[in-house]
Amino acid sequence: MNCRGARLRRGQAAQPGQKRDGGVKKKPSCSTGTNGTVVRDFRIKDYDAVIKLWQRTEGVGLNESDTRRAIAAYLRRNPKLSFVAEKAGRIIGAVLCGHDGRRGYLHHLAVSKRHRCRGIGRQLVNACLAKLRKAGISKCNIFIYASNTAGMKFWAHNGWSLRTELRLMQIPLNDGRRTSRECPC
């Protein structure tokens, strides 16, 4: 059949987007939004554009864990779980995603200011959550600064719940200090 529903004759070419039997070719799942935004795997070659986006985004805290080398290691440990959003060849959004075998974690979700409120952040998050589900992960956590009210609104609006009974504690491992309980082995 052609695009008007008539069956194709022997030797007649199918139209773009149409299979030879007249059916419609399936588009890649969830990779292109209606606004021309493409969500794809975060590759280390995206690092320079992504770090600039993160540096311009309020509520994203960067440190020694965000060097090119550290991000490359993170992407290797968590293959095909982190994503970027691209429009007209420019990166306009990014998110890191990983898991420990039990829980998923999202870090540094960012969308450029002029592209916000268009569903791009939600697309990035949904891509991560789909990959985590496929890996058998049943829950996902995020870390968010208490002062990041815009971020809190975004996450709450998208169904995330604040866990008020939990507090985050941390110890630096690369400061040269030995802890009193360090393993002697």
Could you explain the architecture of this structure?
The protein folds into two domains: 1-30, no CATH class; 38-157, Aminopeptidase, CATH 3.40.630.30. It is of the alpha+beta class and 185 residues long. The chain has helices spanning 47-56, 68-77, 120-134, 149-157; strands at 38-41, 83-87, 90-99, 103-111, 139-142.
How many β-strand runs?
5
Domain count: the total is 2
CATH topology of the largest domain: Aminopeptidase
**CATH superfamily (homologous) name of the largest domain:** Gcn5-related N-acetyltransferase (GNAT)
| Class per helix and strand makeup | alpha+beta
Shape: globular
Low-confidence stretches: 1-9, 12-22, 24-30
Count of helical stretches: 4
Please tag this protein with its features.
Aminopeptidase; 185 residues; globular; 4 helices; 5-stranded mixed sheet; 2 domains; alpha+beta; 24% helix
Report a brief summary of the structure.
By secondary structure, the chain is an alpha+beta fold. Helices cover 24% and strands 17% of the residues. The protein starts with 37 loop residues before the first strand and ends in a 28-residue tail after the last helix.
